[in-house]
Amino acid sequence: MPSKQYAILVDRLKDLSYLGSALGLLHWDQEVHMPPAGAEMRARTIGYLSGRTHEQFLALDKDKLLSKLAVALKDKDTAEAASVRDVWRSYRREKKLPVKFVREFSELCSEAHVVWAKARETSDFSLFQPLLEKIVAMKRQEAEYVGYKDSPYDALLDAYEPGATCAQLSPVFSELRDFLQPFIRRIVRAAASQPSLPDLKGTFPIEKQKAFNALVAEKMGFSHAAGKIDVSTHPFTMGFHPQDVRITTRYDERDALYAIGSTVHEVGHALYEQGLPVEHFGTPLGEAVSLGLHESQSRVWENQIGKGRAFWTYFYPKLQKAFPKPFKRVVFEDFFRIVNQVRPSLIRTESDEVTYNLHIILRYEIEKGLIEENLKVKDLPGIWKAKMKEYLGVCVPDDRQGVLQDVHWSGGSIGYFPTYTLGNLYAAQFYAAALRELPRLQTDVAKGRFAPVREWLRQKIHVHGKLHSAQVLVKNVTGEELSSRYFIEYLKTKYGELYGV
Ligand code: MG
Q: Which residues surround ligand 1, an ion (CB under 5 A)?
């Protein structure tokens, strides 16, 4: 009985996915191709289609199809049941928010985004402050509408990382923070007495860089037949279907490594999208588990694999051949140190894998404080400066390079930042499991054989779609719950060797 009803639900979900693809393509085009004057019309088109999508989404239950299925399959342990539970979860969240509230919030964010851009440009937090106050107040309201057990912040986190709570995250993040602070101080001290490294700047024609990046992507297993690499200011991945996955990267004519890092990251995301099961397209079983899990797939390629010795043992000779100046005269060991340089800095998106998570933990603590009403928006610039000094030992000269640097809050995304650190922690834990199960992983990668690790990730993670929650998947794949232990061990081993700490 449920199977027939489920088939009807799947048809409705597929219709929603077609709308989602159309919307996605409009967004993609906006970032990649659209002429600047098209912005206003595009915003209206996206607004209209988003409204229609929202109506369609709520119509999933027009004849009580969804709610009946949800009741019938409530405690069942099948793929269909998992799929229905996930749709039901997002449906109920959406239903709890009054239409008027959603519209007002989206208008507030449009305005806030423009003001934030201006505030950042002029480094003047006071411009953005009243809007951020409204956003925080509305996000608190959203938490009340949605409901929560312990912290209102849990209700916001849940939108990005279903099932994650402060009770789970706070101890993991504190342990990580307490490890990182002294570890980074030791690295900074050790770096001061190391010989200086060669300069890798030069002139790298963009076309040649594009060819090199396409080669790296292909070797990793990115299908150029089912995907495309374009250029945008902020790199991203967008999957319309496993057979059509778009990534973007960005190039710097003076720095060949600038693009490679972001390409490898986005290809990691793309491999997840290309690895989702085609037969479940449109349903949760054909979707990525969560933002944190998605980020784990980009991070494991970007960091554990893409900044490892094995990866560069294979690619460095190719890089030297493509760009003899300056790489021909730079020995592997120096190059490898440069790729893995640790430097506490102001900007999150430019930070290295060791310092990165302190940028996130700082944001998590601030967001949680705002939503739990322990912090006030007007105090943020000062709190930001104090925490950056305490955690990373850096002095923040202005709000542009401090509290105003990220776009997230202006778009109403509160509860999103922790998914980046979750991604790093999942990545290290998955990679440790992969190394246990694939003893030849490093040897293979050093020879350019990326299939074993890619297929391992695909079989363990990608093909399951949303069959399991992030919490269950991590346990299934690694044998234990999420922990910061593997990430900490990974850093200790790698940077212990590089910096002698
Ligand atoms: Mg990412």
A: 298
Task: Name all domains of the chain by residue range, CATH numbers in brackets.
Answer: 2-147 (no CATH), 167-499 (1.10.1370.30)
Known catalytic residue: 489? no
Residue 99: which pLDDT band, with cuts at 50, 70 and 90? confident
CA 132/CA 118 separation, integer angstroms: 14
Ligand 1: distance of its center to the CA of 97 in Å? 28
For residue 69, report the distance from its CA to the centre of ligand 1, in Å.
Answer: 34
CA distance 86 to 30: 30
- CA dihedral angle for residue 373, residue 378, residue 383, residue 385, rounded to 10 degrees: 160
For residue 157, how far is its CA from the centre of ligand 1 (angstroms)?
Answer: 17
Judged by DSSP in three states, 227 sits in: strand
What is the 419 CA–ligand 1 centroid distance (Å)?
Answer: 10
pLDDT tens by residue, 415-462 = 999 999 999 999 999 999 999 999 999 999 999 999 999 999 999 999
Q: What are phi and psi of 217, to 5 degrees?
A: -60, -45
Average pLDDT, the chain: 96
Q: Out of 142, 266, 287, 302, which one is annotated catalytic?
A: 266
- pLDDT tens string 47-89: 889 889 999 999 999 999 999 999 999 999 999 999 999 999 9
Q: How far is the CA of 75 from the centre of ligand 1 (A)?
A: 34
**pLDDT score for 180:** 98
pLDDT-based confidence at residue 39 (cuts at 50, 70, 90): confident
Tell me the C-alpha distance between 271 and 296, whole Å.
12
Rounded to whole angstroms, the Cα distance separating 45 from 60 reads: 23
Please give the Cα distance from 362 to 388 (Å, whole number): 8
Contacts for 312 with CB less than 8 Å, ≥ 6 apart: 332, 335, 336, 339
How many angstroms separate the alpha carbon of residue 228 from the centre of ligand 1?
A: 17
pTM of the model: 0.96
